[in-house]
Specification:
The protein has 113 residues and is mostly beta strands. The chain is 0% helix and 49% strand. Strand 5 and strand 6 form a beta hairpin. It is globular.
Amino acid sequence: QVRLVESGGGLVQPGGSLRLSCVASRSIFRLNTMSWYRQAPGKQRELVASITVDGRTNYADSVKGRFTISRDNAENTMYLQMNNLKFEDTAVYYCYAPLLNAWGQGTQVTVSS
């Protein structure tokens, strides 16, 4: 079993930036596609971005051009750089390893003026 721990969430004004991190308890990134999901109040959890083993990335249309997913295999860490944040980005953000069906506990991102 692997443990995923997110951090970096917080309160930010519209137009601001945050960088989320996801640390795995063991080395899994070299062998697994990794993803970021988010869930806003009253809404279903949705895919935000994913990164494959060979570094290919995929983004939800709503975050393209604003968010960047990356991975540091040596540090067992995945990142989500979020720029130009909008009110609608407010959600709990989760790290997910699909092949292991492993979720982190989530980190809250609140965009508010």
